[in-house]
Amino acid sequence: MGNKFVMVGGGSTQSPGILEVLRRRAQELAIDELVLYDIDEKRVSLLGQYTKMYYAEMGSLVNVTYTTDIDEAFTGADFLFMQIRPGLNAQRAVDEKICLSHGVVGQETCGLGGFSFAMRVIPAVRQIIRKVKELCPDAWILNYTNPEAILSEAIYSEFPDAKCLCICDMPISIEGAIAKYFDKDLRDLTFKYFGLNHFGWWTQIIDKDGKDLLPLLREDVLSGKIDTLLMSNDETVGDQYWIDTYKQMIKLFKNFPEYFPNCYLQYYLTPDEMVAHDDINFTRGDYVTNGREKRIYEECERVIANGSAKDSSLHAGVHGNYIVDICHAIIHDTRERFTVNITNNGSISNFDPKAVVELPAYVGASGAEPIVVGEIPTFQKGLMEMQKAYEKLTVEAALTGSYQTALKAVMLNKTIPNFSVGKAVLDDLYEANKEWWPKLKDDFIPEQKTVLV
């Protein structure tokens, strides 16, 4: 018997890269059935028809189907790759612009754009996992849905028995860039890392001879020899956003040279620079909508109209390879090392054991076993404590619908400078997202005025 794979959010523009890797590696993964599932009938139909045609014309024996029926998709599933986006990139752009209009970061995982995205996506993911437990309880869920840090906290706390791994390809993308700088094969380096998703640091880069390359990288940065890294991910090469991001990452390392930072820390440590750099009239959400989205769906339409995909191709990059590599490790119990989001459980000894953290782990048939980090320094721990409190309160707000809890979460986000800005952004986001957010209770306790006698 082969495996049934389901792409949850199969109409996503992130799907093609994963679909190509699955096609190439179908035999080693024992895939005999692939289902693209989505609630968006038009998008899943476009990508579904394209994929069926493409797989067949490339000689694949995998049976490809697509559907908007969740029961049909999930029944008998062995692996579910989840990447959903309630509100699509159009709502992402709305959130970004609301935040920027108040002078704060609007990024979809880090600032209140991330808070808003979490409020949209947590209810949807809860429904999906309940369906998994009902229809295919033994299936593995590999989650790529953002904001990964908040969503993993929600999933692991409510569904501790679910066979789920929450993952992100950003760490391996940065590691690939570091390997490229040292002219090393990525597999010949061991990266030591700790943090939260989009909120972590590399502490060592060990080569095959046991030498730590981090001091060399630090020396090259502090001496001014380099001011950026060359991206190893073909999907982002030439994208000005990522070019600027990698330069900012090196700048952060120069300012805080103890450990090498995840690039997303730019939104927390230099939020003013990020806001100044953004264009409120054309945000990242607009860029994706007018770029990758337009290109992919137009290609699907062209191929369908022509009745053949022989003159078309899909690109397999880091995003697709990473999730499939993890899947391969589970199927074949290889116990390879990957960076995943997992319950701390003492791996970071001076951090909340119940909190979800991002750490290297050995992945096999039984899931992920994180590597012990030990104690972390006060600076990183302090930043993580505040961020984790924000993440937990965001989950609580999504589950309880408490406005007061939502406001507390907002005030713990490091991108928010004060109460008046935080409340104003929250209120505007809520008004713009009523179709997707849980209804918030009117439990706000206003400040009591002091009467001077």
From TrEMBL:
The active site is at D169 (proton donor), Y264 (proton acceptor). Its cofactor is NAD(+). Residues 193-415 form the Glycosyl hydrolase family 4 C-terminal domain. It holds the Pfam family Glyco_hydro_4. Mn(2+) binds at C168, H198. Keywords: Cobalt, Glycosidase, Hydrolase, Iron, Manganese, Metal-binding, NAD, Nickel. GO terms for biological process: carbohydrate metabolic process. SUPFAM superfamilies: LDH C-terminal domain-like (SSF56327), NAD(P)-binding Rossmann-fold domains (SSF51735). Transmembrane segments: none annotated. Binds 1 NAD(+) per subunit. It comes from the Bacteria. Substrate binds at R92, N146, R284. This is Glycosyl hydrolase family 4 C-terminal domain-containing protein. It comes from Enterococcus dispar ATCC 51266.
